[in-house]
Amino acid sequence: MSDGLKSHKDLDVWKKSMDLATEIYKITKSFPKEEMYGLTSQIRRAVVSISANIAEGAARNSKKEFIQFLYISLGSLAELETELLIAKNIGYLKNDSIFEEIKIIRKMLSGLINSVRRKYDSTRQIKSKS
């Protein structure tokens, strides 16, 4: 990862996604017990995947791989949002504020992807000129 970052734990988007995971676990505690192996499980898996893929990508050896894992995180975020919309439609989710958190994390992930991509592209241009 380098570029002044010591680990994924230095990334604000990772911290924010960890907070989101904690909040989602609290929210899904109130879901019906019959959803434990259905929607609750899917929602929890998706939210954990966001921060986990940021961490895994940051630990990889190249910016290209990091970008790939950031896109996987973005996909997990979209999956989470969809599942939460289903939960809302069914009546399990009462508060809409979680969707604002998702929007913020989406913007942060997109910004990080663009930043890493710019650095990756500039590195490739320098190598191709050599």
UniProtKB/TrEMBL annotation:
<dbReference type="Pfam" id="PF05635">
    <property type="entry name" value="23S_rRNA_IVP"/>
</dbReference>
<dbReference type="InterPro" id="IPR012657">
    <property type="entry name" value="23S_rRNA-intervening_sequence"/>
</dbReference>
<protein>
    <submittedName>
        <fullName>Four helix bundle protein</fullName>
    </submittedName>
</protein>
<dbReference type="InterPro" id="IPR036583">
    <property type="entry name" value="23S_rRNA_IVS_sf"/>
</dbReference>
